Amino acid sequence: MNVRKLGLLGFLALSGIFSNGFAQKDTDKRVEELLAKMTLEEKIGQMNQVSFFAVDDKAIAQYSDDDMDTFLVRMGIAGGQDQKKPSEMTRDEKTALIKKAAAQILDNNITQPVRDGKIGSLLNIVDPGMINKLQKAALEESRLGIPMIIGRDVIHGFKTIFPIPLGQAASFNPQLVEDGARIAAVEARSVGINWTFAPMLDISRDARWGRIAESLGEDPYLGGQLGAAMVRGFQGNGNLSDPDAIAACVKHFIGYGAAEGGRDYNTTNIPLHLMWNVYLPPFYNSVKAGAATLMTSFNDNDGIPASANDYLLKDVLRGKWKFDGFVVSDWASMTEMLAHGYAKDGKQVAELSANAGVDMEMVSGTYLKYLPELIREGKVSMETVDNAVRNILRVKIRMGLFENPYVDTKKASILYTAAHLNAARRAAVESAILLKNDNNTLPLSESKKIAVIGPMADAPHDQMGTWVFDGDKNHTITPIGALKADYKHINYVYEPALGYSRDKNTSNFEKARQAAANADVAVVFLGEESILSGEAHSLSNINLIGVQSELLKAVKSAGKPVILVIMAGRPLTIERDLPYADAVLYNFHPGTMGGPAIFDLLFGKANPSGKLPVTFVREVGQIPMYYNHNNTGRPFVGNEVMLNDIPLEAGQTSLGNTSFYLDSGKDPLFPFGYGLSYSKFEYSNLDLSSASIPVNGVLTVKATLKNVSNVEGTEVVQLYIQDKVGSIVRPVKELKGFQRVSLKGGETKVVEFKLSADELAFYGRDLVKKVEVGDFNIWVGGDSNASLKGSFSVTE
Ligand code: NOJ
Fold it and tell me: Reaction catalysed (predicted)?
């Protein structure tokens, strides 16, 4: 080999191309070597995931006396013949007995099966000592020494809790989202967790659905960008074997967010074009960003439960996208096919899911029980099992679990560091959306006397939001906490008026009104407790819950300016509340550092820059309403006759009528992408590099953004397009780019986007992704009603 060739090889190796190739070959070789040594039972063991919630002092402290008694009696530990009755025992005695029983269950049901090679993954164990002990059983006490992958729902932070994903999406800031996921990974890995079930990429167009909180909103482009950023953050930017990386799991594949009526777990009916153009793209992006694993969803789409959908799991995910990580079911989503009426028994469940391409079963155990029999009967092939195991081992090897399986318990875990808390504060700042600010009520002067009112002003648990298993409310800084810590000089009185969001006791309303009357301004903290959104927490009425709207009215009647600060898990229907607030700052549950972040914004230490990742409807009956809808044949024109203008005994007519509601019109309360700032931005000079581009071309789009105020601020500049005529009907608008642009007062900047053919392409009539020639509209602006408009065409 000559020197020049050697030089080239060296360059290739340095640039990673070659080394990746080697690494891949090496991984494949190791997978095959291991597989060759495995018995069928050991293979199936890898496909089995088991959950165990530690029964420690902290968990037991939360049990009621009744819970404890039931446990003791059911376990045959108390209340039987010759046994003490629970009523004769102290709580300490009961605690000791429960802990002893739990340790025995752990030994029999987890540790021994791990030694026997029957468990490939555990979820919900977070104690480093226990994780190490079990990992040791896998590595040193089992025949083949295959490590387990340890999962946990680390959704928006592990201990340091960031805003809920819907809030993070409002930042329109991929770097911020990536940094948040990185911190979550560092914290989780420091106690031994190496796999998270996030990001959730379900497109959600229905605020009744509780899990909208966990979503990245309604838009496939935004969700795609931010989901990939989260994957990079969790997985250490591509190096899964980093000692502080954790494997990501994109979920729920697929359609779960389109549950009928927003009722969790419900049927979805997503036709193929919609599937390909809206629901699949965020998953594709994250798979391309290297997501190591993927989770199926609970719903059936068009009659086929996701954990048995071979078209999506095999043809799409493996065939077209070349995904080489592993697929896990959702929690018992496989056995739920019995209730769906899709499988007649557990054996058929295992057959359907294995053959559809679900590699690992979460908690429901049918693989362990029935796969040996199914293989003997030829209903599932050995190759299917081998491929599933290959997928799982490949990820474990890539994660470096064989080399680096244990947590170093001598090193302190890395939790709640100052850097993490600062990042969470910044994330909460960028996630807040200013919806209203009449007469520049905000920012507040620090010399004003403030009446702080409302149940969310000091709700350390609820402020963290849904899907928090590990965050400790004692670390949360609420708005009241922030006033005590960071804003000690502020003159304020605090009158919660309600104990929690659902509290209906109005007896303190007068006190709240008085407090407002005696102050210069009232800041009213309303919203939702964290348990009112999230999994299995759908609502049919999404007004401010309980009597909170009445509280707001009572405070307003004091005649002082009112600032409404909302902390919620979903976009609530707040139209009826707007007249009673001079300014509204909306926070999707903002996490550990929400309090300081909110006061930073209220006092103008920070300038709001969040934009809505979902449409805010006026009435729940408008749902689903989303900006990127198709046009009807009778689009709204603006001079429609509304409900109150219809003459009495009007004759039947549909002529001249369009698609809208007689009572609430066609518009939402706030459109997608909307959000105010203390600065004022103006857009001008839309400039396209060409009036037409070829199908493989790139259009350069420029627009001038001016900060016409004297306040420094950040604007999320958004670019939308419309493909005017397509082989299938195209949405009226689609987000295709966004940038956060910071400008000093009076400053101007030309913002530039490169719009490539790929962004204009879609899955048309023939379900092939391509750009169709024709005319396009284009808009640049600060929300989805952007008015700076141009047009261009795409030619052959
Ligand atoms: C059920 C949820 O749907 C899923 O998102 C979660 O990751 C699993 N439970 C594990 O807790």
Answer: Hydrolysis of terminal, non-reducing beta-D-glucosyl residues with release of beta-D-glucose
For residue 251, the ligand 1 atom closest to its alpha carbon is 5
Are residue 361 and residue 466 in the same domain, yes or no?
Answer: no
CA-214 nearest atom, ligand 1: 5
Residue closest via CA to ligand 1's atom 3 equals: 330
Partners of 731 in beta bridges: 630
Quick one: pLDDT at residue 21?
65
Ligand 1 pocket check for 251: Cβ under 6 Å: yes
What's the CA gap between 247 and 103, in Å, rounded?
29
The stretches in the chain having pLDDT less than 50 are 1-18
pLDDT, position 715:
98
136 C-alpha to ligand 1 centroid (Å):
26
Which pLDDT score is estimated for 7? Answer: 46
Ligand 1 within 6 A of CB of 556 = no
Closest CA to 307 of 249, 350, 248: 350
- The residue whose CA is least distant from atom 1 of ligand 1 is 331
CA of 197 to the centre of ligand 1 (A): 7
Residue 396 Cβ inside 6 Å of ligand 1? The answer reads: no
Judge if the beta carbon of residue 197 lies within 6 A of ligand 1: yes
CA–CA distance, 292 with 392 (Å, rounded to integer): 10
pLDDT tens track for 332-366: 999 999 999 999 999 999 999 999 999 999 999 99
Ligand 1 atom at minimal distance to the Cα of residue 252: 5
Residues 327 and 463 in one domain: no
Amino acid 508 reads N
Say yes or no: CB of residue 535 within 6 Å of ligand 1.
yes
Residue 360 pairs in a beta bridge with 328
Catalytic (active-site) positions: 330
Q: How many domains does one find in the chain?
A: 3
pLDDT for the residue 778: 98
CATH of residue 284: 3.20.20.300
Which ligand 1 atom sits nearest the alpha carbon of residue 198? 7
Q: Three-state DSSP class for 698? A: strand
The residue segments making up the domain with residue 739 are 681-795
Q: What is the pLDDT of residue 58?
A: 81
Decide: 455 and 499 in contact? Cβ < 8 Å: yes
In a domain, 619, yes or no: no
276 φψ region: left (φ > 0), alpha (ψ -120 to 50), beta (else) = alpha
The protein residue with its alpha carbon nearest to ligand 1, atom 4, reads: 330
Coil, helix or strand at residue 123: strand
Q: Examine the domain organization and report whether 378 and 438 are in the same domain.
A: no
Take residue 5 and report the two structure tokens written for it: 């060739």
Give the span between the Cα atoms of 226 and 598, in whole angstroms. 23
- Measure CA 170 to chain center: 12
pLDDT at 20: 60
For residues 614 and 217, the answer to whether their CB atoms sit within 8 Å is yes
Instruction: Quote the ligand 1 centre to 395 CA distance (angstroms).
Output: 20
What is residue 512's predicted lDDT score, i.e. its pLDDT?
98
Q: Would 255 be classed as within a structural domain? A: yes
- Give the single-character DSSP code of 619: S
Q: Residue 558: which of 505, 511, 501 has the closest Cα?
A: 511
Domain boundary among 398, 413, 436: 398
